[in-house]
Every structure is written in C-alpha cells, then in structure tokens.
C-alpha cells in the first residue's frame, strides 16, 4: 500500500512538472516574441530616411522568422501590421495571435497568446 502511494505521488509530481515546463516555455517564448516586435517597431532609421521603410510584408516575414526561432508556429494571416502617421511621427503596430497545444497524458488544452508591440493606434 505504501509503495503504491509513493508511485502515484511521484507520477503526479512528474505530470505537474511537465505541465509547468510546457506552460512556462510557451509563456517565455511569447515574451521573447513580444520583445522582438517592440524592437522591430522602434527602428528609427526608417523614420528619418537613413534606411528604406519596411513594407507590411517585410514586418510579417521578420516576425515569422523570429517566431520560428522560438518554436512558435505562425502563419502570415495571424500577424497584424498597422501604420499611422508619417515621418518622425510614424508609428507601426505589430501583433500576432496564436494557440499553443499543451498535452499531458489523458488531457490536452490550448493556450492562447497575443503578443503586441505596444498600444494599437487609433
């Protein structure tokens, strides 16, 4: 009886650790992607004419590349690019919406993530 309780207890700890690992890794990947989005939108070179301004597709491709680096599966349709203003007042808003499957034996669910580069322009 005591051995069976110990086995069940160890199995439960392993399942909880596995679940925590999957959720933690997904949260961290989302935070990293959000930080990369913020870096992409803060590039001032395009605002003052030192660099060519990026197109919406350039931003989408950059986000897809960053997401792949963090093992996030994204399609270009899941990425939002919005622009407002011109010149030094130009602002770019980037967002992505995706789900990550979390699986443990006997149970599975989806976590939804929506990393953004900042506040959505009006």
Topology, pairings included?
Layout: H1 2-41, H2 56-69, E1 79-84, E2 91-96, E3 98-104, E4 107-113
Antiparallel strand pairs: 1-2, 3-4
Overview of this protein structure:
The termini are far apart. This protein is α+β, with helices and mostly antiparallel strands. Helix content is 44%, strand content 21%. The strands form 2 sheets. A two-stranded antiparallel ribbon has the order 1-2. Strands 3-4 form a two-stranded antiparallel ribbon. The longest helix has 40 residues. The chain is built from 2 helices and 4 strands. It has one domain.
Main beta sheet: 2 strands, antiparallel
Using the CA coordinates, give the radius of gyration.
20 Å
> In what order do the strands lie side by side in the largest sheet?
1-2
- For the residues shown, what is the average pLDDT? 88
Tally of separate helices: 2
User: In the residues, how many domains can be counted?
Assistant: 1
Helical percentage: 40-55%
Q: Which structural category fits the helices and strands?
A: alpha+beta
């Amino acid at each position: 009886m005591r051995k069976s309780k110990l086995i069940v207890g160890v199995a439960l700890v392993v399942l909880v650790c596995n679940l925590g690992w999957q959720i933690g890794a997904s949260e961290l990947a989302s935070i990293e992607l959000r930080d990369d989005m913020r870096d992409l939108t803060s590039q001032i070179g395009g605002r003052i004419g030192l660099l060519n301004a990026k197109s919406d597709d350039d931003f989408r491709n950059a986000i897809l590349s960053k997401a792949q680096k963090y093992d996030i599966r994204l399609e270009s349709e899941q990425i939002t690019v919005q622009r407002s203003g011109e010149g030094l007042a130009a602002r770019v808003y980037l967002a992505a919406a995706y789900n990550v499957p979390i699986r443990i034996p006997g149970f599975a669910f989806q976590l939804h993530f929506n990393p953004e580069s900042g506040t959505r322009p009006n």
